[in-house]
Write a structure and sequence with these properties.
By secondary structure, the protein is α/β, with parallel strands linked by helices. It has helices spanning 8-15, 49-63, 69-73, 123-132, 150-162, 182-190, 262-277, 282-293, 299-308, 327-338, 344-354, 358-367; strands at 38-42, 75-76, 79-89, 103-106, 109-112, 117-120, 136-141, 165-170, 193-196, 199-200, 209-210, 212-219, 222-225, 248-252.
Length: 374
């Protein structure tokens, strides 16, 4: 009987003459009755998070056709949870450039939302949308982890005081397989419901389930895994790219999720940044110079050869990470924008000293909300 349903449902099926089956939970239509829910829909890229919320939009169209007592069941303090409003993160507007402006878009299609869709850069802009649409009771806030931390508490306050429901299709883990950011952490703390979604590992030899988003670059047809210290946020479209400055994403299982350079980041790169923060910038400058112009002389190269080549089971794919351009620039973004170890003056000095790619740096710093005039 192991693995089979022994619940009342399972016994009922047995009594009706069905064999013992493994009975899974069915997909239920969205609950517009229960007030004040904060629902996280989490999973890797391609797992169907936005498509999940598109089903909620379609359910709302059915629910809104009902009259009488149905409206009383779904309404709290003038807020009707059958009325859905979609909010897209301004940072993520370029994902589906070919779809209509009012589209709730996902990989398999889209839903037209008319005037019930908007975009917001931060929690303050969301607050404005909430005030402008006071009767909307269900808010789909796409890619919520891209917003500032305040959004978690704004949603909690609105749901508890007015019965508003928020549905947040979002990454919780980043390409490093870590909690995406502090916003993601606070969203988890304040959630009432979590729907985890998975996807098939997209490696050509694998069909295992995966929860992880994998970032990689394509250079001359080669898969080049992103280094651990690759910029955390890179804004871009949802199409395959062959420019080594622009990443691609898929979902991968444990075995095929390559993440080179993690040990180097904590053994070498971050300590060099800490030395620079204390005033000794020369060791960091030497390493960045090697990363920019003579990769085989870098400590990164030595670390990766030791880990992936000079070992019992060599794995050459992670070494492709060294083929991507702007490795020194990526390291600089990590130390400045994420770790706050370098001053703006030090960054400008390093850029000028080593002749680094200003355009790439300016774009990535802007993506990570640390813009700098270079």
């Amino acid at each position: 009987m192991r693995g089979y349903d022994t619940s009342d449902t399972g016994q009922l099926l047995k009594n009706l003459g069905f064999p013992l089956l493994k009975v899974h939970a069915s997909y239920s239509h969205h609950d517009f009755i229960t007030p004040g829910r904060r629902i996280l829909v989490i999973g890797p890229m391609g797992s169907g998070k936005t498509e999940f919320t598109a089903r909620v939009w379609r359910d709302s169209k059915v629910a809104l056709r009902k009259n009488g007592k149905a409206g009383n069941l779904t309404t709290t303090k003038g807020v009707d949870r059958r009325e859905v409003f979609v909010v897209r993160a301004s940072l993520d507007k370029t994902r589906f450039p070919d779809y209509p402006e009012d589209a709730l878009a996902f990989r398999g299609g889209y839903e037209r939302c008319g005037d019930h869709i908007g975009s917001a850069r931060d929690s303050f802009a969301l607050e404005v949308l909430l005030a402008e649409n006071p009767s909307a009771g269900t808010w789909i806030v796409d890619e919520t982890a891209f917003f500032d931390e305040r959004i978690a508490y704004l949603m909690a306050e609105e749901s508890e005081s007015r019965g508003v429901t928020f549905i947040c299709p979002t990454l919780v883990l980043n390409f490093r397989r870590e909690i995406f950011n502090q916003t993601a952490r606070l969203l988890l703390e304040n959630a009432t419901d979590v729907f985890p979604l998975t996807a098939y590992c997209e490696h050509e030899d694998c069909l295992l389930d995966s929860l992880y988003t994998y970032r990689y670059y394509l250079i001359d047809g080669k898969e080049c895994p992103a280094l651990y210290f690759d910029p955390l946020i890179i804004i871009g479209g949802d199409r395959t790219k062959t420019d080594g400055r622009e990443p691609n994403y898929c979902t991968r299982c444990d075995t095929h999720h390559y993440l080179p350079g993690k040990e180097y980041t904590f053994f070498t790169l971050k300590p060099l940044g800490e030395q620079a923060a204390r005033g000794n910038i020369a060791p960091l400058l030497n390493e960045l110079n090697a990363l920019a112009g003579n990769i085989e002389a870098s400590r990164l190269y030595a670390s990766m050869v030791k880990r992936y080549i000079a070992c019992e089971e060599p794995c050459p794919v992670p070494m492709n990470a060294l083929l991507v351009p702007c490795i020194a620039e990526r390291a600089l973004v990590y130390l400045y924008a994420e770790q706050n170890l370098l001053s703006s003056e030090q960054v400008i000095f390093i850029v000028n000293k080593l002749g680094l790619d200003r355009e790439y740096l300016a774009q990535r710093l802007a993506d990570n909300r640390r813009p700098l005039e270079l």
